[in-house]
Amino acid sequence: MTQSKLSGKKIVITAGPTYEKIDPVRFIGNYSSGKMGFALANVCAEQGAEVTLITGPVSQKTTHPNIKRIDVESAEAMYQAALTAFTDADAAILSAAVADFRPASPMDTKIKRESGQELTLHLLPNPDIAAALGCIKKEKQILVGFALETDDEAHHAQDKLKRKNLDFIVLNSLRDKGAGFSHDTNKITIIHKSGESVAYPLKSKQEVAADIVNQLALLLQ
To answer: Which amino acids are annotated catalytic?
Structure first.
């Protein structure tokens, strides 16, 4: 891909985990490092795009001047930021591992442990960012989702692709060695809404990001 492929394009990328507060010191979260999302942001920026990177709590750094970084903590905050940024964007790549649920009543003070006492958390569903953007997506906007699965991977990914009005989905499996959270490598299959799918071998996340952005650039031509 030449450097001009994404010149003038506005790309929204979500990355990392979200933290859903239980009390001031505890939260519901996941193991996402944000590496995949940050690699995508770097590749898009290097290809000339104006990138809005909405990231949950991670240790990753951004240095490219084409990347506008928005730091959030909760799924609700990421949802609001994504809705706003997508309004005038050409595309969005939703690589964040967003918590599906949040505690209904987070405590203002630390929950104390009492001997023998059980703790039950009442969880509420978080807003579905991909589904929300899929509903407001305009004709020329491109929406890319991710599916991290552990079983019946292709079926679940294709179902998510259709339900959320995605243009293509990036499938990775936790059963693949070297893929998924925290690794510097990933192994993906890209599934298009046409039904076409392309499987890639294990690569560095920077190389995987380039493969994904190549597919995106073709749709943005």
So the answer is: 30
